[in-house]
Amino acid sequence: MKILNCYAGIGGNRKLWGDDHDITAIELNPEIANIYKHFFPNDNIIVTDAHEYLLEHFREYEFIWASPPCPTHSRMENIHFGQGYKLRYPDMQLYQEIILLKHRFKGKYCIENVISYYDPLIKPIMSNSHYYWTNFEMLSLPNECRQINTGFKNYKNGREKLLGFDLSKFNLKTELKEKVINNCVEPETGLHILNCSITPGYKNDKEIQQSLFN
User: Are the C-beta atoms of residues 4 and 65 closer than 8 Å to each other?
Assistant: First the structure.
């Protein structure tokens, strides 16, 4: 399957997709793109603006994943408001991409973002403290995804280890390292959503085993 992975970061959502797909990853920061390329050498990584690339090339793919920047939508905006924090407009590129894919794209898509401090303008699926907009049935995340997410939030040190990434060999500033790790979608979640897009009514092995004994 031909996949477009927008705002790729270091590839948290892509980590368990394997190498059977033709994957193009879009990342604006060259330093982060090089790390992605280290972990996924078979992918085609393009250093450019994902929002513009999506508009120009979305018709070329069968499945699209996009995780647009989330800070201006996050509930942290309300926490910091009134504390000398610079007031910002919510970045509406998120909704531009949802509308584009919903009405113009013939393949399957998933757009992921944080739970916003305002009521979402387009109704999402809410799962595991995230919003997802898809055009296929996204079944509830299996238990291992929810457990990893809980552990991720409570893991004070070595979060990259919990996600299965070793960034020790890369000379990243602490702030950038924390940013790329915090922006990672849990790999199990990324795999579950991709499988849901491919196979209607998809259940993973653990769900099947559980259903056999219920």
Answer: yes
Query: What is the b/e burial string over 149-162, where b = at least 16 CB atoms within 10 angstroms of the residue's CB?
Result: beeeeeeeeebbeb
pTM for the whole structure: 0.88
Mean pLDDT for the stretch of residues 172-185: 90
Per-residue pLDDT at 211: 37
114 DSSP β-pair partners: 130
Q: Which amino acid is at 208?
A: I
Question: Please, which residues have CB within 8 angstroms of residue 118's CB and are 6 or more apart in sequence?
Answer: 73, 90
Asked whether the beta carbons of 148 and 162 are under 8 A apart, the reply is yes
Where would I find the beta strands (DSSP E) of 68-210?
108-114, 125-127, 130-134
What one-letter code names the amino acid at 133?
W
Rounded CA separation 136/138 (Å): 6
Residue 181: phi, psi to the nearest 5? -70, -45
Give the position of tokens 């924390």: 178
State the pLDDT at residue 32: 96
Domains of the chain, earliest start first: 2-212 (3.40.50)
Residue with tokens 């401090």: 117
d(CA 200, CA 58): 23
Q: How far is CA 201 from CA 82, 153, 192, 194, 212, in A?
A: 46, 29, 11, 12, 16
Q: What is the pLDDT of residue 210?
A: 39
> Which DSSP letter does residue 85 get?
P
